[in-house]
């Protein structure tokens, strides 16, 4: 592969607001070979002068669903697997074009899709998977209706289904081990009701404490972690009591529980863009008015939860949870979080903190020697204006993943 040198760059990775000015970065192969405050000699390298631009590490989205090609999760779960796979190709390419070079799938992606990206068969971000999420009978993401008599086992064979139906401590252990066998790098558990669901409402709790502890024990033995879907404070507190490390959503977290999360070093991934997208697209999606009102209530709590967690010192990772046609809202989370957080902290959530959550510190989310050459050249200053990271990558004049340009509008 060719080598590249980015000259006179201002590097912003979320570690400090001003960034590092007048830096020189050499890419060799698929890694960053050198970062220096002095010009780098290399007569064979292609050089790009980034004066006036911002150089960032590739973005990381810690809550995606790459197989959600249609907005209705129940409908998606019954689509033919081949159709779901074709949807995922489009979704993955879109994420890459927005500057997301690493994503964490929270239910449904397979190791075959990981390998398809690694082998260059399809274009997409680096993919971190849990396989199928764990769902109790009747729980959030059990898509059977009140009238269905079919077995929940059907979801296990559907690529478009987020989860698998699992009940009881022994089956929880068996299912967790099965997902590890199939290439999972963490275990996902639906431990609470849906944000606006009437089938398994927000206050409902998923799984007994013994079942949650069984999942965590299996994760510990496999040297990985458990990620839990939660909205209510009670659900978050139960997960923390079991030693669970990764908390999704946490919409109604209280200061007391946030303090516990901070003390235990948990990382929370809010996904407010998911609610915003559904509210804006309600007419097109033909959503029930009652469902929309519940979404609006949850959306309004989002910035409040961010302020609560920031005050407690909780680590926040970037996540979106958008589905179907709403994947175009993936970058909207930056602007939503800016309602409550400084821009530099929002950036950090999609770089350094996200890298910690996916357990790839020093390899992604940073610009340092030895890291993967995942780089963005941004025309505007994202610290002053987070919209620089939106508009479907419009303000990114270059996107590089693994040392290869996905987009390059730079003058050599």
From TrEMBL:
Entries under InterPro entries matching the protein: Amidohydro-rel, Metal-dep_hydrolase_composite, Metal_Hydrolase, Metallo-dep_Hydrolase, OTAase-like
A Pfam family that the UniProt record links to this protein: Amidohydro_1
CDD domains linked to this entry: Met_dep_hydrolase_A
Residue ranges constituting the Amidohydrolase-related domain according to the UniProt record: 54-392
UniProt superkingdom: Bacteria
Entry GO MF terms: hydrolase activity, acting on carbon-nitrogen (but not peptide) bonds
PANTHER family: ALPHA-D-RIBOSE 1-METHYLPHOSPHONATE 5-TRIPHOSPHATE DIPHOSPHATASE
Protein name: Amidohydrolase family protein
Species per Swiss-Prot/TrEMBL record: Mesorhizobium ciceri
């Amino acid at each position: 592969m060719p080598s590249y040198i980015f000259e006179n760059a201002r590097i912003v990775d979320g570690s400090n607001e001003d960034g590092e000015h007048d830096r020189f970065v050499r890419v060799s192969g698929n890694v960053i070979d050198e970062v220096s405050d002095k010009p780098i000699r290399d007569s064979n390298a292609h050089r790009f002068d980034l004066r006036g631009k911002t150089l960032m590490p590739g973005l990381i989205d810690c809550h995606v669903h790459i197989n959600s090609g249609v907005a209705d999760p129940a409908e998606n779960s019954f689509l033919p697997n081949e159709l779901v796979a074709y949807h995922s190709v489009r979704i993955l390419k879109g994420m890459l074009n927005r500057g997301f070079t690493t994503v964490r799938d929270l239910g449904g992606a397979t190791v075959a899709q990981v390998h398809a990206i690694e082998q260059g068969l399809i274009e997409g971000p680096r993919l971190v998977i849990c396989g199928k999420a764990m769902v109790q009978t009747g729980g959030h993401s059990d898509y059977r209706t009140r009238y269905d008599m079919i077995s929940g086992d059907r979801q296990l064979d559907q690529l478009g289904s987020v989860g698998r139906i699992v009940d009881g401590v022994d089956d929880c252990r068996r299912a967790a081990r099965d997902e590890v066998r199939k290439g999972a790098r963490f275990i996902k558990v639906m431990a609470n009701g849906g944000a606006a669901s009437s089938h398994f409402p927000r206050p409902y709790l998923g799984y007994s404490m013994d079942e949650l502890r069984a999942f965590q024990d299996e994760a510990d033995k496999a040297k990985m972690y458990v990620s839990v879907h939660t909205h209510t404070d009670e659900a978050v507190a139960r997960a923390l009591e079991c030693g669970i490390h990764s908390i999704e959503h946490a919409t109604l977290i209280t200061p007391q529980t946030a303090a516990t999360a901070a003390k235990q070093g948990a990382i929370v991934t809010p996904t407010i863009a998911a609610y915003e997208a559904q509210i804006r697209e309600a007419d097109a999606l033909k959503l029930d008015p009652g469902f929309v009102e519940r979404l609006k209530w949850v959306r309004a709590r989002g910035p409040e939860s961010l302020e609560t967690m920031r005050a407690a010192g909780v680590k926040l990772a970037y996540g979106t949870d958008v589905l179907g046609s709403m994947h175009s809202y993936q970058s909207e989370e930056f602007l939503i979080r800016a309602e409550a957080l400084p821009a530099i902290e929002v950036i950090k959530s999609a770089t350094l903190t996200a890298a910690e959550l996916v357990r790839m510190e020093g390899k992604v989310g940073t610009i340092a020697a030895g890291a993967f050459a995942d780089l963005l050249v941004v025309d505007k200053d994202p610290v002053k204006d987070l919209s620089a990271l939106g508009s479907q990558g419009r303000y990114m004049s270059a996107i590089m993943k693994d040392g290869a340009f996905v987009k390059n509008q730079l003058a050599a």
